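User: These chains co-purify. Model them together.
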Amino acid sequence: MKEKLQHYISRYIQLDDSDFEHFYSLLQVDQFSKKEFLLEEGKISRNQFFILEGLVRTFYTDHNGNEKVIQFGIENWWVTDMDSFINQQVSMVTIQALEKTKVLSISKTKLDQAFLEIPKLERLFRIITEKSLVAQQRKSHFFMKASSKERYLGLIKAIPNFVQRVPQYMIASYLDITPEYLSDLRKKH
Amino acid sequence: MKEKLQHYISRYIQLDDSDFEHFYSLLQVDQFSKKEFLLEEGKISRNQFFILEGLVRTFYTDHNGNEKVIQFGIENWWVTDMDSFINQQVSMVTIQALEKTKVLSISKTKLDQAFLEIPKLERLFRIITEKSLVAQQRKSHFFMKASSKERYLGLIKAIPNFVQRVPQYMIASYLDITPEYLSDLRKKH
DNA sequence: CGTCTATTTGAATGTACTCAAAAGCGGTGG
DNA sequence: CCACCGCTTTTGAGTACATTCAAATAGACG
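Assistant: Joint model of the four components:
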């Protein structure tokens, strides 16, 4: 738990034990059972979550009342609605556990405090944010570039075992196609 | 020039004059004439650019040889291909000036140096990166949510005067529709 | 003024959607 | 342990949105 975070951090910056302990003391361990919400649409995202184990999805509800998945989050990922978290505005999205999920969470207030008290964290979160940005851009470009069939094949190639942990209609939603059409694609290959 | 950057920075962090001068000394003023490239596909993005004046587009070339615009950049924006810049990998995109464009540029090496010598810059770039991430996400979500007609209307509403500075086929490309279909949309409203 | 580039028009086509219904699957209670 | 219920996936028909391709028209610039 502690070690998982420490190991994660060590991939990006060097943080001595006392700084790490200090940071860790600002975090809180939380558990969410299947279907529970980490964040709900219409509320403000007060926390950023580091996933220790489990699986979550982020989705919004469109004007027809359909839930559209925009991201999945797994072990060793930070998740939140950045727009809501940073600007402390009402969120347009919901984050929900798809499995029993254990996280470390930190509030906006405490994170801001952490930045002041442990300057090295600025670097860590700069790097994490850069990684997120790159991931987000790669996703966008792939979606623009690829046909829906290629998107599907790309996904099962990129994270094969992950597809089995998630119902197909959520995969379809993530790929931005209807479940019916995904079913078609699967049949034809 | 100097003042533009200073003013921009002051929106996010407080930086004393000596730190600012130090940072500024690592920057270089560059000018690109219309159609010139700030970055070319297949090369590594060595620099990050702060646009002082002018207009650029970022695009990639798809398998049919069509150029697909993924972003425009204007005054007071930092542009680069983050994926290529951060990981110093070959870039998949090209950045081109659409007008005579004046920028401040900083190399990866110098920016890394700057982070070590002026720790406050970590915070500045963390914040800038967060802003970019949020902008990128807003764009993605809007594109997922809205129909192509809504995307067009949204664009001309968001940045009306900007549409006139850019040929229509680039707008179409940015909206991820064909120029023919955009022409249709415009006719019908 | 002529040439090159950008935009519009139109017809044929394809990709993906909607809606309705059937089939499959998994968990729960009797 | 089986039967049923609810949820998920598949199937199919009809349709809409957006594309391709070719050609005509308009616009910009030297």
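The mean pLDDT of chain B is 94.
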